[in-house]
Amino acid sequence: MTSIEAPDVLFVLGKGGTGRTTVAASLAAAFANAGESSLLVQWALNDAVSSLYGLPDTHHEVRKVAPHFHVMNYSFERAVEEYFVSHLGARQVFEKVIQSSHIQKLMKAAPGIQELFFLGRIFWLSELCQKERGWRYKRIIVDAPASGHGIPLFHIPQSVARMGIPGPISYETNRVAEFLANPEKVGVAVVATPEELPIEEMMEMLPRIEHVLKREPLFAVLNRCLDSNLFPEGKQHSFSPSTRWWKTAIASLENSGNKAHLQAVLDVMLQRRKQEGYALQQLSAKNIPVLKIPDSGFQNGNVRAHEVIEVCARECERFLYGSNHG
Amino acid sequence: MAKRVSPNVVVFLGAGGVGKTTLSTSFALAAAQSGQTVVLLSIDPARRLQSALSVGKLDDEITVVPLVKEFKGKLYAGQLNVEQAFSRWIKDEGMPHEAQEKLHGHVFFQTLVSRVATMGDAFAAVRVAEILEKMPNVDCIVVDTPPGIHAIDFLTKPERMREFLNSRTMEFIKMFGRGGGLFSRALKAGAAHLLDALGNIAGHGFITAFGELLVLSEGVFNTMSNRLEAASKILRSSKSSYVFISAVRDDAINVVEDLNDALKKQGIVVSFGVLNRIISSELQNDKGFSDFLEKHQESSGELQVFVNYVRSWISKQDVALKRMKLLVPSVVQIPLVPGLESSADQRLQDLAELGALILEGVKNHKRGSL
Question: Are A98 and A117 in contact (CB under 8 A)?
Fold first, then answer.
């Protein structure tokens, strides 16, 4: 049993530069480590994960990168083809109609079509692909496009469904809208780093997510948190530069004029710690659980990229399954 | 009357969270301080930055930033907001009120707006052209961009934009929107079977509604398309400079490398970069401090964590600097500024000083155009 009641599909939303892809990959790795077959769905120019496992980039094809851990990089063109050819069994329609250059342009230009197919693909992976292909992923983690794009994603099926136009697209869209509305099927996690702007943006995202999904995010991830050894819990707002390590550092300076420079380093660390404390307070007021991931870049010198995922995955596993797990 | 020299455009590029918005604002302030009339197009300034500019909430309408006497020039600022810009453009087209209402209330309007929002890059370019049209007395336009490689898609992948704004595709799609003569027109275009088949798949109403939206927003899109063309010309000319911003982060340097490759393919050479938030050389060269770092790397507890933190920061910034210097001949390093990261009130003067460093660099390294 997980201690977080994770749904089948988890959308990971967050601004660029917050480590959203790393977090999404780590969550998928954490489920895989616990023996649950997981699939990470990216929608990006390049697959960012396979290479970390020493494998060539994948595209639309699902690739297994580790036991129980699969990744793919969604392609709109391929999803359209599979929808018409495999799912509807309409190869003729696909070749004669969909592939015509006019319709290709129309599909790329029409607002929301790409997003609709993306969501349709997620729905298919969760609900239909076992029957159609015999694949089964217990956990699907979606590395959603950066935040502005992340939330409109959820609006699209609703606005199409609201049009009430009969026809296959509406039928499929309604199914997807219902799927998204079901908290047992779909959940959202938001990612931010403990810095002013990302935290501000995450807090602004919360009501928008609640508005469109009618529920709050399942949890928030604070990525690249500072080691709490430096700033023990409870002292985060009352930090005084009187701690031993700080005094020792200042005392070491040969040129006292450099104190301001060292103070600047401390300022950054304090600021991160303050933002972390602020975010924790705001999120706990909303009863949103928080997964804290330490800044692995600053643990012990340089950590290699796939090790970052392993380190983060361990934190994720503890969070998802509770500390007694394993 | 002498023809006015067209303004310089300075575009800030880089990954998310590297300080693009702060540095582009600083740059704009420095340029205003030196006597120029500057327009700053920002993406998502933090509240702290907005309150530093004392403009309340920035929005898509360009407003004057009140500056003290020390600033000889003028600063205007606006924040890119697709929805607001769209509404303004609809008004600018002089559409009848009814048509405006109908467009705003259209079932696809929101998705259209969010679709345009996903092309943030092109949107910013369109805004640059709009400013050039509407504000003829500007010396310099400073453009903050969305994070990452997509910020220059409108330059590197113009075909993506054409897919959207191409007039022939538009014509084709619009046939769906014009009720009456739909099928005769389609027949003329030899596309009847396509329309029919597509209608059967997607639902005729779905396509009709989409066509209707395009008919309604045709004027807006034509203007957008023309402005985008004008902007592309300016942004490829020697009037425009690009500044790469990175922080001490591998992924941020990767983004700069990708941006550089993409711009190079377009014949645009970037010669200036900023490595932001470094640990100053003064601190690194302090013998006492480096001995301290040496001494405590093997100790335990908080001291060791702090020392490792600082050491790995320094080693990372060395790598970052090397990688950046391989890309651009000139890299300005901006140290962590005490106070700037933490104080509640950012002072315009401090920001302007920061921006002056970049202004100097851009002047010295005006890029050559091919």
Answer: no
Count CB atoms within 10 A of the CB of residue A9. 24
Cβ neighbours around A306 below 10 Å, total: 17
Q: Which amino acid is at A168?
A: P
Q: Which residue in A52, A83, A103 has the most chain B C-beta atoms within 10 A of its own C-beta, making it the best mutation to test that interface?
A: A103
Least CB-CB distance to A200: which of B46, B147, B277?
B46
Q: Residue B42 burial (CB < 10 Å; 0-12/13-18/19+)?
A: buried
Q: What is the pTM of this model?
A: 0.78
Instruction: Please report, for chain A, the start and end positions of each structural domain, with discontinuous segments joined by +.
Output: 9-232+289-321
Closest residue in A to B22 (Cα) is A197
Could you tell me which of A258, A252, A260 has the C-alpha nearest to residue B293?
A252
Query: What class does CATH assign to A9-232+289-321?
Result: alpha beta
**CA–CA distances in Å: residue A119 to residues A16, A33, A38:** 21, 26, 18
Q: Could you tell me how many residues make up chain A?
A: 326
Q: Is residue B107 part of a domain?
A: yes
How many structural domains compose chain B? 1
Across the interface, whether the CB atoms of B117 and A195 are under 8 A apart is answered no
Within a domain: B370 = no
Domain of B329: which CATH number? 3.40.50.300
Question: pLDDT 10s per residue in chain A (326 long)?
Answer: 456 788 999 999 987 778 899 999 999 999 999 999 999 999 887 888 998 888 999 999 999 999 999 999 999 889 989 888 888 888 887 887 778 776 776 676 666 677 888 999 999 999 998 888 888 899 999 998 764 556 778 877 877 766 656 667 778 888 999 999 999 999 999 999 998 878 988 998 899 899 989 999 999 999 988 876 666 655 544 445 667 778 888 899 999 889 888 888 887 887 888 889 899 999 999 999 999 998 865 554 455 667 788 888 999 999 999 865 54
Q: Residue B220: which of B76, B42, B105, B83 has the closest Cα?
A: B83
Rounded alpha-carbon distances, angstroms, from residue B134 to B39, B88, B137: 12, 13, 9
Sole residue written with tokens 């990708």: B258
Burial of A20 (0-12, 13-18, 19+ CB in 10 A): buried
